[in-house]
Amino acid sequence: xxRRLSLRTWYARHGRHDLVWRHTRDRWDVLTSEVMxxxxxxxxxxxxxxxxxxxxxxxxxxxxxxxxAVIRAWGRLGxxxxxxxxxxxxxxxxRDGWPDDLRVxxxxxxxxxxxxxxxxxGADVPAIDVNIRRVVQRVEGRVLSETDAEAAMVAVxxxxxxxxxxxxxxxxxxxxxxxxxxxxxxxPLWGRCATRGPL
Length: 199
What we know:
Layout: H1 7-14, H2 27-37, H3 42-55, H4 59-65, H5 67-74, H6 80-96, H7 110-121, H8 130-140, H9 146-157, H10 162-175
Helix pairs in contact: 1-10, 2-3, 2-7, 4-6, 5-6, 7-10, 8-9, 8-10
């Protein structure tokens, strides 16, 4: 049997490095992409992001444009309430600057705040999205609380930290450890996985 890749090597070779928002560490760009990705397929968000980001390159630019323009530009991404939340967050940031706790921004919850901090700020914080939750629960072999899932993410993702850990585990969940028909034979976590398949 061929030697299995480490998570670090797997991510370097197979991670979705070509996603447009992964080429920035700008907080606003990361926040915009994370809000777009809520309940939206990656391909659809990726198609919309460049034009949207160019039209609203800063919170001040979005705040100045007004909510109707933002919702129109949001277009076919669906759930226009997300566009309104992003606009409201832009108004707060343009007026007051970035808050220490991003969760005070409209529409920003625990995951989004942590994802922005990890990707834009380089913070070593766990962020649990649906893909990462599935990965760590399968590896651990049980359903996990939010706190336990965060601890498991740190352990399962080691030695990667921060942004690399977040993106590597997100990509394992999206590309290999899928909801149905996981490709366990390709998984860099197979050797430590308690379920080796659906939980």
